[in-house]
Amino acid sequence: MSETENKKIQQETASEKKGTERHLPAHGPVDADGREVLLSVRDVDITFGKGERAVHAVKGASFDIYKGETFSLVGESGSGKTTIGRAVIRVNPCAAGEIDYKGVRISGKIPRSLDREVIRNIQMVFQDPAASLNERATVEYIISEGLYNFHLYENEADRVAKVEKMIAEVGLLPEHLTRYPHEFSGGQRQRIGLARAMVMEPELVVADEPISALDVSIRAQVLNLLKKFQEERGTTYLFIAHDLSIVRFISDRIGVIYKGRIVEVAPAEELFDYPLHPYTRSLISAIPIPDPLLEKRKVPVVYDPSVHDYETEQPEMTDIGYGHFVYGSASEIESYKKIRESGVPLKAVTIADGDIPAETTQDDNVAKEEILDTPIHDTGSWWLAVLSFLLPLLGLAAGAVFRKHNYMRNRQVCRKGAFAGLIVRGAALLLFGLLLLLAIV
Predict the structure, then answer these.
(1) Mean pLDDT computed over 292-303
(2) How far apart are the C-alpha atoms of 71 and 39, rounded to whole Å?
(3) Disulfide check for 191: which of 170, 298, 383, 426 has CB 3.0–4.6 Å away?
(4) Is residue 297 part of a domain?
(5) Alpha helices (runs of H) in 212-349, residue ranges in sequence order
(6) pLDDT digits (tens, 9 = 90+) for 37-68
(7) Domain presence at residue 126
């Protein structure tokens, strides 16, 4: 019997053994580097619909998540990030491949006892905090629901103590427990969703874009909360997002997904220093630059799938070293290896050469707005209006002089006073003419 056949039989035997497990072990398998593999996604396909209308949302997704780390899944909207996250919590079924938790298969049909342990150990924080909370339940019940279902408390006093401790840890007050979700802001609702997940003391949390609907300041608070729980409890995160700038802050490793296919996986800094796949470079180039002048000169990288020639060479996910995996054909992998071995970081963001056009500079914009360049004595005093009213011709002349020297407020009041004086004088002359005409008649 050949070595390939032996390997295939061993894999089938291992798969059958995984399917008979009724409980989760205390620890998962350990890889060659001594890291505990908490979650393993292997060649997962997820399909919605049947026949010609079938939509292949995820194709051959593979990655590992190690205990205590934050693994981020990044890609455009509709790329399959949330679909994978929902498959991990057993909401979306896998059409092919398998998902292992601590070395035990949790995808497909599993025993009820194992299913309950998976629910207990893997929690999810949803993207929309309003839709994920029961509007008819108080905050206390929402947070306590998992404790009730799995009876994770000794008595009622213990349950209340756990809920109050958790609500305090996410930055809310005990009096908030008697309120309903509609009484809170978006950031507060997201904190409630986080408290609901963390009160179960899960080992793995699937965070599905938990900050995309929040203000910038609230985002930072929620990210700090996630970091805090990870440091205190050793929580592992599958963090789903589309904003690479946020992901860089919180992640240990990052997986980039494009149209259901994972195209690159690497440690966070490694990925930003060496974004080998063209799609990864396009995502990094889309990160806004805080300086508007540099942002205007930035040359965006547009990903074109036609650059890959996969008709003659079949692509596959390959380890090129440094914990860096890239999806590509054999020739592409060779070019990626050469780039990585050179040790010269790649620049995903390019700023166009040349000076900033003069018409875009702030100083010139201010110069064009004459009213912004105001002399000290350009106060528009009322006595100028009075003098212009009494002496309108002199007021118009003064207005012309003020305009020449950019005293715009003084010019305005002189013109108004002069015009008012001319109108009053014209009206007086007209009235005098009418009275004179009536007297003669």
Answers:
(1) 86
(2) 10
(3) 170
(4) no
(5) 216-233, 244-250, 268-273, 278-285, 292-297, 330-342
(6) 999 999 999 999 888 888 999 999 999 999 99
(7) yes
Residue 258 amino acid letter: Y
Say how many CA atoms lie within 13 Å of 60 toward its Cβ. Answer: 9
The boundaries of the domain holding residue 433 are: 369-440
Residues 6+ apart with CB under 8 A from 198: 123, 166, 169, 170, 205, 229, 233, 235
**Do 262 and 376 lie in a common domain?**
no
Task: Among 230, 251, 273, give the residue marking a domain's end.
Answer: 273
The pTM of the full predicted model, rounded to 2 decimals, is 0.74
Whether residues 177 and 32 fall in one domain: yes
Q: In the structure, how many helices (H) and strands (E) does the chain have?
A: 16, 14
User: CA-CA distance, 15 to 179, in Å (whole number)?
Assistant: 48
Q: Are residues 124 and 230 in the same domain?
A: yes
Domains: count for the chain: 2
Quick check: helix, strand or coil at residue 289? coil
Residue 237: C-alpha distances to residues 26, 122, 339 (Å): 18, 10, 31
Q: Whole-angstrom Cα distance, residue 119 to residue 150?
A: 10
For residue 326, which phi and psi values (nearest 5 degrees)? -135, 145
Classify residue 320: in a domain, yes or no: no
The answer to whether residues 79 and 225 belong to one domain is: yes
pLDDT for position 439: 85
Mean pLDDT to the nearest integer, 273-281: 93
